[in-house]
Amino acid sequence: MDKKEAWDHFLKTTVIPSRLDQVTALHTYYGQAIEEIAAEIAVQIDEVCQDAVKQQAAGKMQACTMIRVSLLRTSLLEGVFEYMCEAVDEHSIPIFRMTPFRYQATWIYKFYEAWNRNCEDQLRVYMGLLKPWFFENWRSSQLFSFHNYMVHAVRYAVPRIMVLPSFQSLQRGEGFEMVVGEYGDHTIGESVYYCNSIERSEKSIKAWLARELPHDYVHEHITKVDLSQMNYEGINLNYTWLQQVDLTDTYLARASLLGSRLDACEARNADFTGSAMFDADFTNSMLSGARFDEVIAPVNIVNEEDAVYFGLYPVKFTGADLTNASFRSAYIAGDFRGAILDGVDFQGANLTGSRMLKEDESRVHLSEEQYSSIIWS
C-alpha cells in the first residue's frame, strides 16, 4: 500500500477505534467521579475569585467580565492535562498572561495517554510508510474529545461556584461568563455560564427571537419576560438559560434544547414535541399540561466517528410540576425525583435510565418494560 492507503488503514483500524475505547472509559469514569471533580474545580475557582477580590479592593482590577479556564497545550509535553484559571476585566480580555492558578486534570490525561500510547505502538507496523511526526501532527488537532470533559465538568461545577463567598463578593460586569478553552486562542472557548444583568425590554427580546437567528441565542441569559403563546418552532436554545420566563401555551416543537436551563419558568401547556433536549434542566418549572411527545433526550448516545457522547445526565425535572404532562413516544432519560407526576402520560415512551422515587410508583402508569427500565430510589 502507498502512504495514503497506509494512513487511512491506520486511522480506520487503530486510531479511531482506540480513541472511542478511551473516550468511552473516560465517559464512564466521569459519570462516577463528577461530584469529586466538581468539588476540586470549585476549590480552584475559589482561589481565583479570592485573588480577584483583593485586586479589585486594591484598585488593580475593574468589574470582572470573565473567568477563563484554559488548557495549556504545552503541559502535554510534561505528561499532564493542565488548565490555567484566571479572572479578567473587560480591558484585559485580549491580553494573554500567566497566573499561578492551575488545575491538573489527571483524570483526563490518563485516558488520553492510553490512546496515544496504543497508537504509537501500532504505528510501528507502518514504519516504512508513516513517520511518527505525521501522527503527532494529526493528534494535536484531536484533543476535543478529551478536553470536552473539562468543559462538562466546569459547567457541572457552576452551581457550587455560584454559592462561594468569594464569588459572591466578586464585583462582576453586566455581562459575565465562564469560559473553558485553550490558552492563546479565544476562538475555541466554550461558554459554560453566562449571566446578563441588563434587563432588556420584553418588546426587544420578542423582536430578537422573531428573527429566528440560527446561533445567536446559544448560551444566552433571558430572564423575567412574557413569551407566552409565541411560536418558536425549531429554535436553537442550546445551553440557553431561561430564568422566570413565561412560556405558557408557547410552541417549541422540534427545538434544540441541549443543556438548556428553564429555571422556575411558567410553561403550562407548552409544546416541546420532537425537541432534542439532552442534559436539559427544568428545575422548579411549572409544566402542567406540557407536551414532551417524541422528544429526544436519552443518556450515553455516542457519535463513534468523532468519539463524542451526548446525554451525560438525565433531563432534570426536580421540583417541576408535570401534572397531566405528556411524554408519548418520547425517548428520554429523565430525573423525575421531586417532581409532581400526577396524570403524566408515558404511553409508548422509552424511559431507560430515568430516575423516580419509590413513593411515586402509585402516581404513574407504566408498562412492565418501562417500570424495569427506571432507577427507583
From TrEMBL:
Tree of life domain: Bacteria
SUPFAM superfamilies: Pentapeptide repeat-like
Entry-linked PANTHER family: BTB_POZ DOMAIN-CONTAINING PROTEIN KCTD9
Protein name per its UniProtKB record: Pentapeptide repeat-containing protein
Native organism: Paenibacillus faecis
